[in-house]
Amino acid sequence: MEIRAATAFRVAAIVFGLLIALRFLWIAHAIFIVTFLGVLLGLALSRAVDFLEKLHIRRGIAAPLVVVVVLGLLVGLGALLAPSLRNQTRQLSTELPKLVDQADRWLQQTPAKSLVQQPPQKQEQQPQQQGQPKPDGPQQKGKEQEQSGGLRAQLGKEVRGSLQFLFPIVSSIFGAVGGFVLVIFIAMYVAAQPGLYREGILHLVPHDKRHRATEYIDTLSKTLRQWLLARLMAMVLIGAITGGGLALLKVEGAAALGVLAGLLEFVPFFGPIVSAVPALGIALLDSPQKALYVLILYLIVQQLEGNVITPLLLEKRLAIPPILTVVAVAALGMVFGVIGMLIAEPLLAVAMVTTKMLYVNDVVGDEVKVGTDE
């Protein structure tokens, strides 16, 4: 079978174009992630803008007004919780190194000491080689521990490595602030004129496919709104349950820690784990027994979130298999860090709607339920 030169050239051009497009997407992935977050936030804000429009407030004014109100609420909440968190953080930064050193000394007396890697000790000084007694005392022990590293040095190394894993995109404070500002402006524009961008996309679709494209865009926007609503409800529930449990255990700053747990719930799977760290540290300042109770509380909340709250709020609404959620969050988290974890679930929702509507329904011909009812 002969292949025409024109056909071969066309195939090669398509393959080459796809490679260039994929390379461009990889290089500029940060801006696409920021755009997706802006559109997602804009879809959420558009409902509030719709309400203000019914009160005869122009959308161009309502959208910035809603953003200012939301940012004001967040700033006010942060100002309310900052003193408690700052005091606990100061106390924790003072006491935690002592607790780590105690744990290090305990580990060195158990078979688990092999888990803590110790650098080779430096050679003894000349006075010791001439028979002089080796100095003893707290200062000498502290010096030896500093030279040998120990648990504190190893934990610091692991924390620095985890930060590089969690924040590979945000290379600087200016980049983070710039990305946040860009998300806010994109959200305002989307919330102010959602129909403009919707019609712009539809103009790219042939007339005979435009009705189906309209159904797809509407279903996609409804699905993303439902995901965001479900995630916000989960955040409120987790924050209330965690804060109430910590208050019953008489942990200092229970309200602030509950709010922190609710906010970090927005990052699936890994957010609740991160939120437990400061609570455990603060409880450990009182007693190891209280820290154990706090650990049990967070384990219970984690099981409740994974087996009751999330299935009812996310899986029932979006019909996303749990294993796909786990894989998507882990994969995007490894590649893009925390930002990847944030967008994993909504991206998976987009992929599910696209696959069901444009492939399973239209190509395969199977009738499957797509989207959610608002």
Describe the structure.
The protein starts with a helix and ends in a 10-residue tail after the last helix. By secondary structure, the chain is mainly alpha-helical. The chain is built from 14 helices and no strands. The longest helix has 50 residues, at 59-108.
Tell me, rounded to a whole number, the average pLDDT.
76
The number of distinct helices, counting runs of at least 4 residues, comes to 14
Taking pLDDT < 50 over at least 5 consecutive residues as the criterion, the unreliable ranges are 121-130, 137-148
User: Which structural category fits the helices and strands?
Assistant: mainly alpha
Order of helices and strands: HHHHHHHHHHHHHH
Shape summary: globular
End-to-end CA span: 55 Å
**Biggest beta sheet attributes:** none
> Considering DSSP H and I runs of 4 or more, what fraction of the residues is helical?
over 70%
Total strands: the figure is 0
- Proportion in β-strands: under 5%
Quaternary structure of the protein: single chain
Rg measurement, Å: 27 Å
